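note to self: dont lose this again. the chain is below, predicted strucutre after it. 402 aa total, dont forget to put it in the shared folder this time
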Amino acid sequence: MTGNAINKSRLEDLNTTMHGFVERGEVPGIVTLISVNDEVHVNAVGTMTVDGAKPMRRDTIFRVASITKPITAAATMMLIDDGKVRLDDAVEEWLPELANRQVLKSIGAPLDDTVPARRSITVRDLLTSTFGFGSVMAMPGTYFIQQLIRDGRLGGDGPPHPELTPGTDEWMRRLGALPLMYQPGERWLYNTSCDVLGVLVARVAGKSFEAFLRERLFEPLGMEDTAFSVPAAKLDRLPGIYHFDHESKGLKSFDNEQKSEYSNPPAFESGAGGLVSTADDYYAFCRMMLNKGVWGGERILSEASVEAMTSDQLTPEQRTGAELFFGNHGSWGFGMGVDIQQTEPWRVPGRFGWDGGFGTSAYSDPKHDLVGILMTQRMMDSPQPPAVFENFWRLAYRSIEG
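---
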């Protein structure tokens, strides 16, 4: 526990600012959660849809996109705690599709211009997103491999599409048919590693990824609304999701809440971005991590695993080319970002968490014993945080007294 507390009048400034984003039509609705020393404040503003009157609710179920990644990493670390796998184990025993890799001579090389991988891919490589394959941050058509990623529905080249993604074994087959972009351990690359981790967890555990998460994380933490799909009885709590249309200068529907891609269990349970959740559910996960693996007096994850997940695990060389994601303030632990330099008041060294491309943000700060969660329904236009994110974090930290 720290000596910090929440200043209620400053918290109202945050709530007023969030209202402003809704009133200007930048987002239909917002749910914010701020917690310091277990004192939790939740605020819901706006509506569930652009053209609807149904108000945003505290228990709205959001498509949380890439803040799925820390949960996937935690599941992997549970297997390590159990002694089922080790960080430096080669993964090919469970993921034979990733054995005997070929590696492009350069990112822009033709797909047959390769050299053999210098070593096997390890669990650590997947947790640090350095196994050699990931999202290509370039204009479509820049590199040969981009179109194959898109054609294979392997993800990372745009927002998630659960209905279009192949089943797990076929997804792995398609991934295994492509060369790596870099040697294992050489370079941080976004997204794909966490999808592979989800498959690894399922195969090691001998059950579906969601079944493992439910048994080991969701049920112990009381995360009743977190899953890879929304059942019919809860669909009234799923909001619309939108992207900014530059022609009309307004918000355009991406996934209809009544015929959502998330209304049926997906063929592929994406560890990189497939979960739906609520602010309170995700808070339980964040608070467990901030409590060094303990929730409700019960140990969920070992303290050593939490420490590893939330510590900088990359070398400067591995971060090369990742400035779009990390700037000069951040790096990567296991499945999540970690702040290593304070370039803004809210970027405190040791703070950990991540953002989601569907308009979600969740970070925990051990120094201030703070958890902050922002959930909206507007897709991010780029890896850079939108204005609502920066305003939320600036005012969240301004609301702390101590």
